[in-house]
Design a protein that fits this description.
164 residues; alpha+beta
Amino acid sequence: MEIEVKIRALMMDPNSGTPIIILKDVDSETMLPIWVGAYEANAIALEIEKVAPQRPMTHDLLRNLIVEMGASVVRVIVTELRDNTFFAVIELRTSEGAKLLLDSRPSDAIALALRADCPIYVDMDVIRASRNAASSDQDIASEGDQTDEDEWPDVIGEVGDLPM
């Protein structure tokens, strides 16, 4: 089963300095953090803030190519969490009505979803796997000398429930 999510926030991991996209279920308070690269976070932030670059960025180019070929982006789905790596697919519909699934990194799929104005979904197994991984991490942290007082930094871009 898949749930629809919206981008809730874009923030930095205080430990690694890596950007994190926070996805939130549209029907509940369930959230899913996905660590992404700096370039992908920048591409997402630019689209959230509606900053138009002088020349098309990679995700703009991909959207333009899809449109020029007569296809459309139907939705993107975060499909799996395996070995601490998230996987996603981009679902396309051709002009003839055929469905195409493209393997993608979630960050690229999300950046494209923002540009194509299509919904983002997460498979419930990914939510469960993420919770299990978080629980394991907390158990490991509580065994050490770490405290729960580690603060998260300011949010880079609080987008609320970004309409798409």
